[in-house]
């Protein structure tokens, strides 16, 4: 309402002023009358004050806006700087991730290789278990062939002749091994069960080194040896490789484990 009144008064003052050119205040006072002049003058003065206040407010607002813009610009610049600082770190992290991925791929490859090897080993173990089961079945199929001599069980073959290697293999197929005499008591007990007109194989051999007699069962030096007079002399041997006492023809004596 106050603004509208000011506008009306200003318009009236403008109309009054347009009736004469550049009249002095005294002339305006005489023209408009003291009453009109007294009312318009404060309004004009107040308008000037308001204009100054508006201008001052606009200046302050512009200054504040400018300050805010400058502050925002500084913050934006700082943000760019931080981004610039972080960028190399981010690139380094990416490189580390690539390196970790490469290591993971290597580990995965090794794991796959180990898994494949384990599968092969499992297959071999299964095959060996199958062979052991066959041997066990064969052993169970011929329980009566083993005779208890002393504290052990033996199978004495008196019908077929074969080489030492064949005898060792046959013993293995029956679930045992060539007899391994440990002492004189065992020797005496076994000798009493043998046909003295036959020769029998033991697990003793000197295949590794001539004159060094090793037990095939243990891989160690034979604990007990007894020879006839002038033995060993290599006579009657048929080893085609070295013609020594390793592999003379004869029958076999199986010992059950």
Automatic annotation (TrEMBL):
SUPFAM superfamilies: C-type lectin-like, Tropomyosin
InterPro entries (UniProt xref): C-type_lectin-like, C-type_lectin-like/link_sf, CTDL_fold
UniProt cross-references to Gene3D superfamilies, sorted A to Z: Mannose-Binding Protein A, subunit A
A Pfam family that the UniProt record links to this protein: Lectin_C
Keyword Transcription applies: no
Keywords: Signal
Signal peptide extent: 1-21
Protein name according to UniProt: C-type lectin domain-containing protein
Source organism: Drosophila virilis (Fruit fly)
Gene: Dvir\GJ16497
